[in-house]
Amino acid sequence: MTPAIDLQDLTKDYSVGFWRPRPYRALDRLSLTIQPGEVFGFLGPNGAGKTTTLKLLMQLIFPTSGRAEILGKPVGHVETRRRIGYLPENPYFYDYLTAEELLTYFAQLLGVPGAERTRRVGDLLDRVGLGRERRFQLRKFSKGMIQRVGIAQALLNDPEVIVLDEPMSGLDPLGRRDVRALILELREQGRTVFFSSHILADAETLCSRVAVVAGGRLAASGRLTELAEFRIRGWELVVVNVSPSALERLRPIATRLTEISSGRYTVELPLAETPEAVVTMLAGAGASILSLNPVRDTLEDFFVQQIAAAGAGARAEVVGDGDARR
Ligand SMILES: Nc1ncnc2c1ncn2[C@@H]1O[C@H](COP(=O)(O)OP(=O)(O)OP(=O)(O)O)[C@@H](O)[C@H]1O
Ligand SMILES: [Mg+2]
To answer: What is the extent of the structural domain holding 176?
Structure first.
């Protein structure tokens, strides 16, 4: 199957410094393949190289080396471009137009015929939750509302591949829920969505696979279930009626012991402790067990581990001149 997006050793050096420009490696040999129909999350801390990657895909900037293909064609292929939608990181639009006028204008540029244009613009404004504000000038829009216009704009050409740079940025919880629902809808329609984010919860609920970048390099990629299925780190026990003697026996083995209300405790046990033995001991001492749960790594733990392992500070800051500092 032709991949929806295929990146091979994609590298980008920016030129930094005014008097003595030096190359600065923002992206270092990134290789990634995204299959059609996938919702793929591109995660990483600030400055990791996410926007750089997405701009390279859109040919807003050009790679120092490496290759990027969309739908089997090098980026920039005109026919393929018609099949791509893009939301930039901080969308900005001419703000004396209304949302409806702006989208209609873009639809005209895209060559969408008259009646279809009106229908599509109206439908998209409803889908991004701006149905009632369609006749407001954009200068009266909040940040989150502009973000929604940006998302509508990205979908105007009915794209097969949708590239979104921080689609949830600036959105309130309701807005995020709407955008999540929209992305799931796009997936049901068989479209490919490649989006960057630092909001891990969004990746958790939406993505078939994710990649984590740090310091311009790929730190990890794969199915969320494989990456972070999610190792069991220990156990969490909630108990009531704990006698003072049982409490004394718990103290040395618990990694954390918190009294959450009078006589009711949350006990965290390390993986090495068999919970059965602890439960038996507590039950023998007259305590009641309210719950026992495994504590798993979350995507957030995984993210932090990967970033630490990649040594986010260890970016190849200066390249060339034989003085590459890593
Ligand atoms: N035009 C530029 N000139 C020089 N350096 C740049 C330029 N654009 C980005 N960079 C640098 O490249 C690195 C990657 O930036 P990029 O915008 O891709 O990060 P990001 O992962 O999108 O971060 P964020 O989560 O903050 O949006 C950063 O260190 C940034 O300072
Ligand atoms: Mg960015």
So the answer is: 5-83+159-228
**% of the chain surpassing 70 pLDDT:** 90
Are residues 176 and 73 located together in one domain of the fold?
yes
Give distance in angstroms: CA of 25 to centre of ligand 1: 10
Q: How many domains does the chain have?
A: 2
Pairing label, strands 39-43, 192-197? parallel
Q: pLDDT at position 298, please?
A: 67
Contact 5, 161 (CB under 8 A): yes
CATH number at residue 281: 3.30.70.3100
Is 50 close to ligand 1, i.e. is its CB under 6 Å away? yes
Among protein residues, the one with the nearest Cα to ligand 1's atom 26 is 46
Domain CATH number, residue 77? 3.40.50.300
pLDDT higher than threshold 50 for residue 143:
yes
**What's the start-to-end Cα distance of the chain, in Å?**
37
Look at ligand 1, atom 12, and give the residue with the nearest C-alpha. Answer: 26
Coil, helix or strand at residue 122 = helix
pTM of the model: 0.78
Protein residues placing their CB within 5 Å of the ion ligand 2: 50-51, 89
How remote is the CA of residue 323 from the centroid of ligand 2, in Å?
27
- Cβ–ligand 1 contact at 26 (below 6 Å): yes
What is the CA angle 69-74-78, rounded to 5? Answer: 120
What type of residue sits at position 121? V
Are residues 279 and 166 part of one domain? no
Ligand 1 pocket residue status of 88, Cβ below 6 Å: no
Cα–Cα distances in angstroms (integers) from residue 173 to residues 47, 128, 150, 189, 210, in the given order: 25, 14, 18, 24, 22
264 by Cβ neighbours in 10 Å (0-12 / 13-18 / 19+) ranks as middle
The closest of 235, 236, 232, 237 to 296, measured between CA atoms, is 232
